[in-house]
Structure formats: C-alpha cells, structure tokens
Amino acid sequence: MSKLQIDIVSDIACPWCAIGYARLEQALASLDGEIEADVEWHAFELNPDPQNKPQPILQALSRKYGRSEAEMEAAQANMIEIATGLALNFSKMQERYTANTFDGHRLVKWAAGQGQATAMKMALFDAYFGHAENIGEVEVLLTRVKSIGLDADAARKVLASDAYVEEVRSDEARYQQAGVSSVPAFIINNQYLISGAQEPAYLVAALREMSQQSTEPKPV
After folding, report:
1. Interatomic CA distance for residues 111 and 201, integer angstroms
2. Beta bridge partners of 40
3. Is residue 66 part of a domain?
4. I want to staple 184 with a disulfide (CB 3.0 to 4.6 A). Which of 20, 84, 193, 207 is the partner?
C-alpha cells in the first residue's frame, strides 16, 4: 500500500473547504487498500482582521465580489445542494455572518495533539454552515470542543493564552509565501498541488498518479 502526506490549507469559514474535504474523503474511500493518507490541516483566514464587525454573509459577499445579493444567494444555494449530496449540514449557510476564525484554527492545532484535528475541523464547519453560529465566540468554540469529547476546560485555557498563536501565524505565512492565495489547497507529499474542491473521480485519478510517481525508482 502506498502512503501519501496530504496537507490541507483551508479556512473554517470557507464552504468549498468543507466540500473539498468531503470529496477527498470519498476519493480516499475509493482508494482504500491502495493508498493510505496522512492528513494535516493548515490555517488560512478569509477574514483575518479580528476587529471587523460581523456582517450578514450575503451582504458581505455582494460587496466583496461586486455582484448582487440575489446572485450571491443563488451561488450559495448551489453550494447547499452540493453539500447536501455529500451529507454536509449547510442548512443555515445563508443566515450566517462573517467571522474571524483565528481562535478556531488554534483549537484545530490543539486538537491535533490529541489526534482530533479533523473532528474539530468538522465540528466547526457544522457550527458555521449548519447552525450559523459565531465561530469567533469562545463559548461557541467550547461547545464544539465538548461535542467531540475533548476537555472544554483545557480548551478554555488555550484560548485565554497565547498557545498555538505562533503555529497558526507560521502556517499562514508559510503557505502565503508558497503562493497559496485561495483555498482549499491540497499539497501532496510536499510536491504536488491540487487547488479547489475537485470532484472525487478527479481526486482518485490524481492521487493514484501522484502515488505511482512517488514510488517509482529515482534515476541514479
């Protein structure tokens, strides 16, 4: 069996990041017994200024992309349909507000030390897209910590300190310097880049090819 390292650069506030990971899961399930993947999450912030006041998402997206709120609503509805087909809860997607995700990224780093990074990420996706919760608020984050069986008191101490601040900032700087300007981005074996939420069939073919290239004898 081949092994791949998959580093995922993403933001908790990015719907395509949730969709992209769900599609990756489907692809890896199709490759079960053929490829084993070690997944590591890395931070990216769509709304990096913690001082920005949360705004209704359709209004904020309309301003950002220069399109009408009706157009943004239609685009979001399309994402909801895609997400539903992947068993993701995006039911409150259009009711959410913009949010700063820095503390959420810190908790993903913290959870990684307990083998729960993916579970933490999924819980935060669900909070934001499925329940329109403010994932910049401490109590919302702690509720999601408890939902995956981790210690909320320990998480509260993390959030009250500078723990994992440098790790998150280092992540962001590293991948920005590497040229990652949009998410999701999947870096395979620190050699190959897959950008965007690609379809499972594409991912299966790409991962299989990358795995074969990684295991081919090197010229001497």
Report:
1. 30
2. 7
3. yes
4. 20
Residues spanned by the domain of 137:
2-215
Beta strands 185-188; 192-195: pairing state: antiparallel
DSSP category for residue 47:
S
Strand partners, 192: 188
Which residues lie closer than 8 Å to 205 by C-beta, 6 or more apart?
none
Alpha helices in 31-116 (DSSP H): 57-65, 69-85, 102-112
Is 220 inside a domain boundary?
no
Mean pLDDT of the chain: 95
Q: Would you give the distance in Å from CA 24 to the centre of its chain?
A: 12
- Per the structure block, which two tokens stand in for 152? 């909320």
Q: Name the residue type at position 126.
A: D
Name the pTM for this structure: 0.94
- Partner residues linked to 188 by β-bridges: 6, 192
Residue with tokens 């329940």: 131
Interval 116-153: pLDDT, tens: 999 999 999 999 999 999 999 999 999 999 999 999 99
Distance CA 61, CA 13 (A): 12
d(CA 50, CA 94): 21
Q: What is the pLDDT of residues 163-176, one digit of tens each?
A: 999 999 999 999 99
